[in-house]
From TrEMBL:
It comes from Sesamum indicum (Oriental sesame). The keyword Ion transport does not apply. This is NBS-LRR class disease resistance protein. GO terms for biological process: defense response. The keyword tRNA-binding does not apply.
Length: 180
């Protein structure tokens, strides 16, 4: 779904859930750099370095290592571990292809979760899954979110409810617009 619908927020809630923290020996979160911001080799390098920083005590010099060597370090660090890797904001199937070569499948319950604005990415990653599609909030849900952000500890004063509901409607169901 489009930006601001709450894909990353939902993924963060899952990632930080106490059961998830307990269940997975290793958790890693990387935000995928957008393709127009950097070249493919540099983007891949940033992804590998981001993963390594999440779960490996990097005591070696990575500046002279090739992307292939960095990928192998990722693979060795995850081998045999039950891990959760979140790939946030994926734009290209090519990034998926490169990364997953270095994410071992030991059939031990490891999981890879990704967020993307592009539906075809999810279909490419797992053609048997329809993924989880995020939707715009209804007017009542929008008001609930806005009220909780503005008045986290108490309820909204009666004289502000009507204007608050109008503001919530103007945000057109986008959670990010309501939070900002």
């Amino acid at each position: 779904g489009m930006g601001g619908l709450g894909k990353t927020t939902l993924a963060e809630r899952i990632y930080n859930d106490p059961f998830i923290i307990y269940h997975f020996y290793v958790r890693a979160w990387i935000t995928i750099p957008q393709k127009h911001l950097m070249s493919q080799p540099y983007r891949v390098r940033e992804m590998f370095l981001g993963l390594l920083k999440c779960f490996a005590n990097v005591t070696y010099n990575t500046s002279q290592m090739s992307n292939e060597e960095l990928g192998e370090k990722v693979y060795k660090a995850l081998k045999g571990m039950r891990y959760l890797v979140v790939l946030d904001d994926m734009w290209q199937t090519r990034d998926w292809d490169i990364l997953t070569r270095f994410l071992p499948d030991d059939k031990n319950g490891s999981r890879i979760m990704l967020t993307s604005r592009l539906g075809d990415i999810a279909a490419y990653v797992d053609p048997t899954s329809s993924g989880h599609h995020m939707h715009f909030l209804q007017a009542a849900e929008s008001w609930e979110l806005l009220e909780s952000k503005l008045f986290p500890k108490e309820s909204c004063p009666q004289e502000l409810i009507e204007v608050g509901k109008r503001i919530a409607v103007k945000c057109q169901g986008l959670p990010l617009a309501l939070k900002v």
